[in-house]
Hints:
By secondary structure, the protein is an alpha/beta fold. The chain has a single domain (43-208), classed as 3-Layer(aba) Sandwich (Rossmann fold). Helices cover 31% and strands 32% of the residues.
Amino acid sequence: MLNKHSNRFIMLCVSALLTACASTPTNFYTLESQSRPPVVTTTTGATKPLIGIGPLSLPALLDRRGIVTRAENNSVQIAEFDQWAAPLQNNVIAVLSKNVATLQPNAIVRAYPWSVYGNVDYRVIIDISRFDTQLGKFANLEASWAIMEEKNHTIISNGQTKLEQRLSDTSYNGAAQGLSKLLSEFSQQLSLALVQAQQKGFPHKADNE
């Protein structure tokens, strides 16, 4: 049976642990769009193509608030006090949509789901298989993507992306910045693919009526 001194010691330890947890603030991070020069397009006329970004999938491992980083020996770490400010999937698709909209000034870009706004001409389907960092080392993005012509449900372009970005420091803020830069590069690739798709002949408004 525990004596009075043992009970007091345990209570002090628990109290110290709770105090330490309460005094540790949680830091929240968000991915940001990166301003880039517009991609030159050959689209002419008053009708702008409607581009939908999504649906987009992420690995289940990343579907959490705590930021996931890679460590040695194929292990991962999930930060307790460094978290995403919004669901990561929503943040990624919002950033990609904003980036593509900047790169495609002659198009109207909508993030998935866009049903409330009507149909789109092109749908960019994205499956991200890796989107993480090694703090102080690299940020990585690996994804497969396809551009579908919505009217005919025909895949007109597809590809694989594998990108790496060196990180400037070991902070989680640096990790978020590195991942944002990867999304900027990925957006550039998608925009170029969309330009090529539009050059093949984008659907006119009358085709959708």
